[in-house]
Amino acid sequence: MSSKIWIAATASVFLAASAHAADSPDGKAVFDKWCEPCHGDGPGKPGTAALQALYNGQKPALLEERTDLVPEITKAFVRSGVSVMPFFRKTEISDAELDALAEYLAP
Amino acid sequence: MAVPPGVSERDFARALREFESAVGSEWVFASDEDVALYRDAYSPFKGEPEERVASAAVAPATVEEVQAVVRTANTYRIPLYPISTGKNLGYGGSAPNLSGSVVLDLKRMNRILEVDDRNHTALVEPGVSYFDFYCYIQEHKLKVWMDCPDPGWGSLIGNALDHGGGYTATPFRNHFDAHCGMEVVLPNGELLRTGMGALPNAKTWQQFKFGVGPWIDGLFSQSNYGIVTKMGFWLMPEPDAFLTGTVVVPKQADLVPLVDILNYLENSGVVNGMPQLGSPLLGGFFDPISDELRELIQGGASTEELEAYAARRGTGYWSCTVKFYGPEKAIRANWEYAQEKFSAIAGATFENGEFFKFPLSAEEIEQITRNQALGSRNATLPEFGVPSLTMFSIGARSATNPNPTEGHMWFSPIIPRTGEAIFEANRVFAEAARELDLPFNAVGFSLPTTYWNRAFVYILAFPVSKDIETNRANRAKFERLVQIAAEHGWGEYRTPPAFQEAVMNAYSFNNHALRRFHETLKDAIDPNGILAAGRYGIWPRHLRHMRQG
What we know:
Chain A has five helices and no strands. Chain A is mostly helical.
């Protein structure tokens, strides 16, 4: 995805995420707001680069292409962090948003 | 459940109930699982009893809720620790200085209240991140830039209050300097507005900083005198164009006039982008030095030998890339003028660099992102006001770093903006690196960062480890560096909570007159000592025994 498109997508997703905050959260919107800047496609994404180095092609470096991320895994990493990735507070990603994110990334 | 120091379990339970009635029960966090999310993800005390941890957290959504929380905290003497987005990683994150504090999480206060692209100002709440603000600008097609630091998830307000810096034009890179007007909840719960904001119905709160009388905004930065709930900023109008050019000089001693001329050009406004000092002899993260040069350095090569090597390779000894924002004709003329000034150095050569017109195309943004990811010396996203998280490649696992860290912290003293100071700092810190067995770079020479046009920042990175003994040793080395710097008249501009005490102690002119003044203010403004105890070495009276030194 080109950066320009990412910017436009993030802007609209941000607004969409705000608009739907009171309803059931959109897992893709949560991903784009909180995960994409590190785990998205393209250059300058340290999370993607880290997983590329870790798995060396045995698993996809992009989280959105993974087929083994059961919800418990996603929730554990978001709430516990790993290496330089910090954990996220509930004022950032609420439990409901985390459920939606985990479902979005689940196989 | 942890209880704040000096507070009974009964009073703490009452306070939590009052917090719940102020902000809603879902926004008070007291379970171990929830409170753990307020740890410092990059704490150098990981796994040690000294780690600073919260007892609970409360997340108000409005100024009135902040005031209610503060009043309750006064009633029960509950220590509060305000955070904005809580992403000040490397400087404490979302954790308090004083264990047992209740974190006042302002992330929910995330409204962008105004962006004026006629006079280029903004007014925001503390939970607004650089990403949020950038998206707002894009969505509303506003022709303004917000200067951003490396990580885009930080708070405009939090970063400015912590004296953070960025990468665009000179007037905007110092984020505190670029603010205009504050709203502050004082430790007694009263609401204060600074500058023109003190005038009821003011029309110029974000346009004129001072109002009338003493200008007190600085008191609310790196301190614990109030909770900033709104803050104005001056924005950079989107320029017409951006241009870079590089001067290369042949001799080691040329660094002195190189910096002097650079200072002239920056302080007179000719160069208004963030310059970049370099040396082909230092290599780069993805550009290691040659075996020949490594052998020369390890063999203790003389200055003449290094200069001869540089001449042989045709690389020059030092480089300085200067950057310009503005109308195309004007910045091309400024680059020409800069070349005239740098030509005073014998043997100086010049190379034209990058040129962009704004707005950037999608392809240009992608190329800039790619260059930044590769660690090239080309312009990076923050130089165009575009936030990212690319900086977190530092320490993260990658093709070149199979052993990721658990975070980082920066040792960052301010040194004079002279070539002589660069040489002296390198001599002093190279000696310290040998004494302390620090992981200095292979060449043993480091050039300072140029965020600000009146002083350099000399930065050394310390990784945070999973290993307790490594972290203990690194903390001791960090504190020793603070002492060494102070012995040479260099003080840090910003530091993690673990070292705020040590750094403040170094600012000891006239028997710590500055710290004593801070304490006098603290006692007057916050007599119950409820707010951010210990931040930047400022302790309330009843906890002053915890002060080291």
